Amino acid sequence: MPPRTFSLDISRCSSYVCKSCLDSLRPANTRPFSITARTFSRRALRLTKPQPLASRNHNTASLDSKALQKFLEEEDDSQPDNVENNDNEPLVTYWEQDATGKRRPLRDLDEFNMSATGLDADVQKRIKNLEKDLETTISMLQQLKNQEDPQKADELYQHFKKILAVRYKGKIGPEGEEYGLLRIPGFTGAHQRTVRRLNTFFTRDTLVLGGIPKSKDIADCWKFYSSARKALSTAWENVPYEVWNFLWTLLSYEGNGVDNPNRMQHIYILSKDMKAAGVPFRDSQKLLAIEAMFIEGWEEEAIETWKKSVATLGSNPETFKQFYELGIRMLSLRGDTDRAQRAADTLLQSPHSPDPRILIPLIRALMAKSPPESDNAWNRYRQMRALLGEKMTIEDYDEIIAMFLAGDCMEYALQAFVDMMFSGAIDIRGKTRLPIFVGNHFFIGKWLKRLIGAGDLDGAYKVVVYAQSRGITTPAVQLNGLIGAWMRSETAENLQKAEALAWKMIQARLAYVHARKHGVEPEYDKPLPSPAESAISREGDQPEYICRTRASAETFCLLAESYCSRKLHGRLLELFAVLKEAEIGTTSFLMNQLIRSYSQNNDNEQAIGLYNSMTKEQGIRPDGHTFLTLFNCLSVNRLIQRDPVLARRDISLARSFFKDMVEADWTFDSAELFAQLPRTILFSMLKARDYSGFIVAARAMKEIFGFHPPDALLLELLTGIGAFQARTMRNATRVVQGKKVLDAMIRQHRMELIRQGHKGDELSEEEELEEKEAILEKIVVHKAKQYCLDLNDIKAGMDEAAHEMGVYDIVMLKDPTVIEKRLKLQKIRGEEEKL
């Protein structure tokens, strides 16, 4: 944190410094600051920049006629009044002191105005006439908008803005000074370059006619201003007020989806510069500066400034609400709950229509104290709920419930959820037994589902523990949802929590099985002598929560998938040992995870042996994911460098897997599997150089899968997978060359069709599919030629491959009965078009 050398006491900012004082403070060699046409240019600029300078509300997207009229009225009110009597005789004598200290009396009010502003009486008269004309125009537009033709009024207003934008913006040199260009004069030498870049930014057309500022405009504004700050600090008095006003409004803009991530940091620095330059702050600027000071780390100084502003900002009806809301947020974050509560009471009891949601940060601060002031926080929640009434949203309830859960106030959290579900008609606090419509696992399940969906996983676990203490046992399906959410987060802490809860459920399952065998009641808190004892004890000491929910097959599946993806092969074997003791049948999912784990552990023989044992001896029915896992176990898919011996063995294994896949009774259960399985089979056979098996597999999958190769797969097969996995110059060249070869194959196929009598027009959908199948086989022949094989060699081995793969009747004989029997699309025929 930077040294605390700056304290922004905004409440003491003054809006007036006399000209003689400025002259005495200005160095002798500094040119007197001329503000010729500055008053006029400020008004013109605020008309041409509707969004930033329209009002004190930073969320205003455009400047309408009312805002402009109000702006002009405020500016008129801010001008010094002529202190005269009924006879226009001056009541005071005006004096002017020059740089040498000599004083001279001024004749009248006109001479005083000229001395104070630098404008003679004629120029001031013209400005006043212009203001009257603007007021008349605005009044006319407002009347037209309210009574006659709003659309026409809006068109005239937009045209009016464009005229001002063209006339008073975008000019440079003496002409720009004449028409009141927004610019910073008076910098030469080494500082001229950075200031000139900032002045050039001011002339950007998008800032005039763009309406809502863009993120790039805000970023560029800060870039040019921050680079010019050092130069500007040498002569802050040269920066006109309209420049400060423009910088503040643009850098503080927030709304309409505009990205301004460093908004508060920029406002904090800008407020320091404005204070150094002696620029008066508007009330809205003071509030934003205090907030920026707090967010940037100057918390004590910001709160102290806020306290000093009670008599000014806190008593102004226009800033009363924003002032106390800011104070409540800052005091709550600081932990000063007593003062925050007094500020909240002052705000809520005022007639300024406060938002009761301002109590949320106060409730959070009360629950964050040690120990939490839960009763006080609950009273504040009830107060907020009473004030909001039907305007209380589900998101509001979620915030309140999360606060009580974080503070371990489970009864209050449950009561808030009951309020949300039953509109506050039921009170369960202090009851020893929950009502039947609350004290059931269906109601608790709704709460858990909402907490898990919102990402409050620790809160969901607290609900599980609390529900069991109130006699409600959470079902396994709900706890499995919590375990899965913990695992999907992939953080070390959440993975440990998921494993601990899953093993507690397994221990409850083992206790139930043990009690069922001996005909006694389960003792969930008693350790059981079993082979699983070492696996359970690894999860830590005796937990504070004795789970009574028994593990299901899904619980074992979640643990198996986690251990397999994290390559914890030893833990996975322990899990399968416990699975037998828990008397839960092995599913195809668990078998797939174990096969995958053996393959990752480079134990391919054990993986294949496990598959044969479980499918042939234990009667487990494989599914599509099983065969996807088996094909991924082949050496051509596991090894980086091809082993010829293992590759030849892969040919027989792949044909055997394909035969089992065709004969097994399974169907596709997802579009992802439908896309991955055929692709993996074709690539496995191509990398093993089983070209005959490749063509047989492609033809068989066309009949039983309804598979047709997409264009992307054809290009991948032609160039290789590696060309798409790493973006290098060599791979890019391979893809380009492969695309040329593929296009040549397509042209050759089209010429063959023309020679056979085809008209040569666009192909039908069926003809396009046949074309892709033909191109697929041509790619295989193209690959085989690299190893001195031709189409006759491939066709010679197709009969043998078809017999070994169990699809001779499907590919060679095309028996419709066999095809219908082996079809794998029964369950997804309705989704066939999607796949």
UniProtKB/TrEMBL annotation:
Q: Where are the PPR repeats?
A: 587-622
List where this protein forms a coiled coil: none
One matching Pfam family? PPR_2
**In which residue ranges is the amino acid composition biased (Acidic residues)?**
73-87
Which InterPro entries does the UniProt entry name for this protein?
PPR_P_subfamily, PPR_rpt, TPR-like_helical_dom_sf
Region: Disordered, residue numbers: 73-97
Write out the similarity annotation: Belongs to the PPR family. P subfamily.
This protein is called what?
Answer: Pentatricopeptide repeat protein
State the organism of origin.
Answer: Chaetomium thermophilum (strain DSM 1495 / CBS 144.50 / IMI 039719) (Thermochaetoides thermophila)
